[in-house]
Give the backbone structure.
Amino acid sequence: MKAFKQIIALFAALALCLAQGLCACADDGTDELSDTPDWDGIVAGLMTDYQVEPSFIAAGYRNLITGEEHYFNPDAAFEAASMYKVPLCMYVGEHIASGELDWSPYAYLGEYEAVQDAVLIQSDDRLAASLNTVLGGYNSSHAKTAAYMGIDTDTARDSLYLNNWYTPEQILNCLELLYNESDRFPGVIEDMQQASRDRYFLLYETRFDIAHKYGDYQDRLNSGPHYINDCAICFTDQPIAIVLFTRATYEAESFMTAYCTAMCEYAERTAKRSESAPEPTPVPTPRATSFPSAAAESTETDTAAAEVPILLPVGLIALFLVLGILTARRVSARMKTRSSLLMLAVLVSAAAMLLSVVGLKNGTVFARPGGDPARTAADFFDALEAGDYPRAYAALGDYSDLGLDSEPNSEAGRILADALRGSYSYQLNGPCRVEKLTAQQPVRFVFLNLPSMEEAVAEETQRQLEEIVRSRPVSEVYDDSQRVLSAVTEEAYLTALNRVLEGAETYYSVVDFDLIMNYADGRWQIQTSPGLLSALNGGAGY
């Protein structure tokens, strides 16, 4: 009996060692790109790994020292979404610094430096809309920034570019200008270095210093495709500019960060092969900003990790099972005992190893979470409607604060914030679907679409200014330099804003999306999506 127990213990130890070996084997991914210097081959390999449809992406790479550049779908124009905020801030900042643009009439928005921080770091759509208004409206600002993209004046009149569609080369032109002449555009690179440190190109990239600006947009009202993009200046041994547009791409952010890492590694290899590699370029030091980071630490898994080679561990388990059964039969025959317990030990060990491989490959095998995810969703939106933001934030798993309860420092900002928060309403739009530790609750959400008000407010502001000019003495309207007094401009804007908001329901938007929740720490936690964040922020493109 003692020998019998020793044999069982031996098989248990062997099973444990083999299971650990299988997990190590499964996780022993190698970097297939490390020995592949060809740029086109790198991109093709990434597209294969992530099963990306070629027509659904456009990409660009430019070495800012040597000028080496590469493109995939170079002539394809994609919806840039919030990436347009880079040239927007470049233009406004440059013209304020040169004295060509007087910021004093817009002082009610706050100091320009703080506005730029919010637009580039927090991707604040409301303040970006205000900057567009400063330049004469959305289309006007795109036309004025066209030169930064290398687009000539005649081409800039084309509605394609006025409507925020750009090619990879045009985005790289903008980034190269920003890098080479950064003194013209104070603080832009520094703000980009602080933006979205755990999303898009930086979902799980931490080795390289990267200044980037994402664009994330989906017209859900018209069932439009989901565009997720990013562009960046990467401070490798030889700094590079990169851009990646994606449309309706599965695991888009994982694909994007894999692309970013691959481009940085490619730049490092080419720099080392260069006979006269320059000294590493100093990296700008981010300036202090009063806008705290809203995102908590990322909890997303590195989905670009090597795929588990499933056939190898299954084969080893089968071999273990066969050898175990044969050994059990021989031992039983020699000891003239029944082999059932030994057989059972072998089968249980093999089953345990198989479950470890299945779990490693597919994640959680079985889960029985408690609580009602639909109730969590309803509590979150009820708290939003009631203005109980601490209770709403408590339901979130990836953000600790969305800034909804912060009070703007201008009267116009407070008016817009109150109107936006008062517009929130929701409806749970069907049953909640639960799969293991993940739940999806369809939601219909109503919010005040601030960008849709932009043109109406601008037109009403102009009417109010004209009325003031007609009805008041010149000394009450203009200063000694014959410029409209900032107080007059602010008065006209506030009056226009209140007039437009009298019919605020006209500008309400309805968006349908699936609210994603994960079960962790004994409760259901909401994972925010770009669609939800955009709606809460009152803008179509978060």
Observations:
- The first strand starts at residue 57 and ends at 63.
